[in-house]
Amino acid sequence: MHAAPPFFCWVGPPPPPGPPGAAPRPSNRGAGVPGAGGFLLVSIDGSTGEGGGQVLRAAVALAAVMETDLKITNIRAGRTPPGLKAQHVAGVRAVAELCSAAVEGDTVGSTELRFRPDVLRGGEFTFDVGTAGSIALVVQAALPPALRCGEAVTMTVRGGTDTTQAPTVDYLDQVLLPVLRTLGAQVSLEVLARGFFPRGGGEVRLRVEPAGPLRPFAPTGPQPKPVVHGRVVNSGLTADIADRTRRAILRALRGWNVGQVGIHHATAASNGVSATVWCNRRGGALGSSGVGKRGYTAEALGHDAAEPVARALRADADVDEFLLDQLLIYCVMATGRSSFTFDRMTPHAQTLLAVAREFAPFRSEVERQGQRHRIVVDGEGL
């Protein structure tokens, strides 16, 4: 675990919008350096922080929200292989469609991207990863601008619903979206088909209705009595694998009030198993998820999906470590002060803050409170 720095802050005024006589677009509000023709340009090193897809998703989403030109270099420089994967390309193209952006470098393996957005718009969109790449990560990139556009958006996304190194779509539905609704977002998700590695074939429909500005995330009052729920999704594997995963979840949650932990038998193009666990909180929910893979036992899957929830509950936190880095971008976009507790500061969360600070002069603080931390973010009303 990486220790959280005690204080984050942005220092100094934003630079001027361009050379004398240049007239930038009025809505182009980014805090970057002047670009060609007077447009503001934010330039980001893709090896920043954890150096993975988080940098790309956050930067492209914020560029669309703020109508700010973007250049990213060294994309996923520390990964093997480096550069964009199919799910990253799909995320960039999804955001580009929402804002009619001109894009260069949006190909698999590219380590440099140029992104010049226009005005956000609503409508019906279909995005296809083309592989079993994560639908959830495409949604992570596209959802902030969809919420910001002020018009109804329907997104159908095809790819992997349950993939490793990404939240499951059940996590989005049961954890992220309930929290966003407390911020005023009107968003719903429907799983049309499941998709596992290697063939994918999953399909999700996300609907976003126009709403007012996002409210800050600042849950107050006592926590509700926690009731933990879960879902094991099994596609084509023997029933005992799903049952062993479920029993491992229950063992990891021993001592907590457990509601329903169900098993859903799905039909998908590839065999697979996933586990998602969630619990009600005063800010909506927290949770965790995991996906099976070769050499990873059902017992390990169930334990690893449930233990982060138990850990967050022991710390009496508002959000889990995985929700933290997904939620921060909305805190920056909201108008006013967000303040909430979490159990672990992660490199992903630190990276999100670093990238967002390239776009907006917000202030944030982190302090430790016993087993948990509290973060305060002064949102810029983006």
What is the fold's blueprint, element by element?
Layout: E1 7-8, E2 33-34, E3 40-45, H1 53-66, E4 69-73, H2 86-99, E5 102-104, E6 113-116, E7 123-128, H3 135-148, E8 153-159, H4 169-182, E9 186-193, E10 202-209, E11 228-235, H5 239-252, E12 258-265, E13 272-281, E14 284-291, H6 298-314, H7 321-333, E15 335-342, H8 347-357, E16 363-369, E17 372-380
Parallel strand pairs: 3-4, 7-8, 11-12
Antiparallel strand pairs: 1-16, 2-3, 4-6, 5-6, 8-10, 9-10, 11-13, 13-14, 15-17, 16-17
> In total, how many beta strands?
17
Task: Please report the distance between the alpha carbons of the first and last residues.
Answer: 31 Å
- The sequence of SSEs as H and E is EEEHEHEEEHEHEEEHEEEHHEHEE
What summary fits the major beta sheet? 5 strands, mixed
